[in-house]
Amino acid sequence: MDVQETLLAIERKLWTGNAAIYKHSVTEDAVLIFAETGPITREAAVEAIHAENAEGRKWEEVEFSGVQVARLTEAARLLTYRVTARRGREESVTNALASSVYVHHSGSWKLAFHQQTPVAR
């Protein structure tokens, strides 16, 4: 599997709303930026995932388009894409531009930064 496929596989898993995957795939000092919250930590994201899961809110339809990967250094990559997603039981769709920075250390790729910018369909 090449680097782009590896990063996309991780990114798709992160969209499943599984707190254990977040803990495993995101660096401890990661910065995550969402329109609803502003910058948050990995731990805040994990807490939010637990709360959403308790409410039965999970992303069920997630589609990526316009995927690009840029090599920043040997051990860092920038993944950008457009996402269209819908939570189960909700009719509204989320459209956003997303950017994720991954770092490679201790034999695996980990998310160190993520930002979503809402856009009109």
Would you mind describing this structure in some detail?
The chain contains three helices and six strands; from the N terminus they run H-H-E-E-H-E-E-E-E. It is an alpha+beta fold and about 120 residues long. It has one domain (about 5-120): Nuclear Transport Factor 2, Chain: A (Roll), CATH 3.10.450. Strands 2-1-6-5-4-3 form a six-stranded mixed beta sheet. Strand 1 (about 25-35) and strand 2 form a beta hairpin. Helix 2 runs antiparallel to helix 3 (about 40-55). About 15% of the residues are buried. The model has no long low-confidence stretch (mean pLDDT about 95).
Write the layout of secondary structure elements.
Elements (H helix, E strand, L loop, with lengths): L2 H12 L4 H7 E9 L3 E3 L1 H13 L4 E15 L2 E12 L6 E12 L2 E11 L3
Parallel strand pairs: 1-6
Antiparallel strand pairs: 1-2, 3-4, 4-5, 5-6
List the uncertain runs: none
Number of strands: 6
The pLDDT mean sits at 93
What is the H/E order? HHEEHEEEE
Shape: globular
- Helices, by number, come to 3
| Architecture per CATH nomenclature, i.e. the level-2 architecture | Roll
- Strand-residue proportion: over 45%
Per CATH, what is the topology? Nuclear Transport Factor 2, Chain: A
* First-to-last CA distance: 32 Å
Helix content: 25-40%
Just give the CATH class: Alpha Beta
Keywords, please?
alpha+beta, six-stranded mixed beta sheet, 3 helices, 6 strands, 51% strand
